[in-house]
Amino acid sequence: MTAERAAEAAVDAVARLTGRRVEWRRGLSGAVLEAGLDDGRVAVVKRGDAPGAVRAEATGLAWLRDADAVRVPEVYGWDADWLVTERVPTGTPDGAAAVRFGRELAALHAAGAPAFGAGPPGGSVDAYIGRAPMRNEPGTADTAWADWYAGHRVLPYLRRAVDAAAVRSADAGVIEEVCARLPELAGPSEPPARLHGDLWNGNVLWAVDGRVRLIDPAAHGGHRETDLAMLRLFGCPHLDRIVAGYEEVRPLADGWRQRVGVHQLFPLLVHAVLFGGGYGRQAADAARAALAR
Fold first, then answer.
1. 198 an active-site residue?
2. InterPro entries this protein is in (predicted)?
3. CATH code at 187?
4. What is the Cα–Cα distance from 203 to 282, expressed in whole angstroms?
5. How many domains, the chain?
6. Buried b / exposed e across 135-164, counting CB within 10 Å, b at 16+?
7. Same domain assignment for residues 130 and 269
8. What domain range includes position 11?
């Protein structure tokens, strides 16, 4: 499909899913397009790049919104192939917005989930983190986070990374040792938190109204330290202020800073599979650091 035909298909999807006429359009990146509606709203439309990807994102956004905590863009409509949301005008990150975001993130996590690995209502077991498959297969009420995280997040992607030659066998052994010792490395037991799940800085929109919006979730029930570890992995403006706001609402358990690497293993292995061995070495380094503490 040519770029022009793809843009026309996106415009058709916007009109069909919103019931409004599109007055102008502008390409953003890849399969994402911005469209002005005849009622003055500006929409962002994106095409799912894998079966079930739109459903996973739309139900994830709805689940985050239902927590009445962190804001997300309004969803104007979606189907199997297309997601149409509001355009969020962005500004400059500032400390006050960061503190507020930290408080809201704590409230989101406190909204909870039925179990570790539980996906959003109406979502599918086969979900995504970015462009990578991610199974939301819930454990039982008695399943410990360490067992679920090792078995359903780290080890499946470690096997894929080894097969892709993105992680060396010696490094794989170190990561496997972390998984075996997770019950002692994971810190105090915590109930399942409602996670964004892919909370790197690119999915944090600093809106002009001073409120953060979160986009592109890989929402599921998990450990609340995982979202904070993702924010640290690729850097986020005013992260210390975010954490300060978070701890005003829900103080983190002692030793959480030493556990950051444990929570970064999964996203690092996902990146190793998608983008190559540099991330595999980072995953191994994070595992060694976790074992050394």
1. yes
2. Fructo-/Ketosamine-3-kinase (IPR016477), Kinase-like_dom_sf (IPR011009)
3. 3.90.1200.10
4. 22
5. 2
6. ebbbbeeebebbbbbbbbbbbbbbebbbee
7. yes
8. 3-86
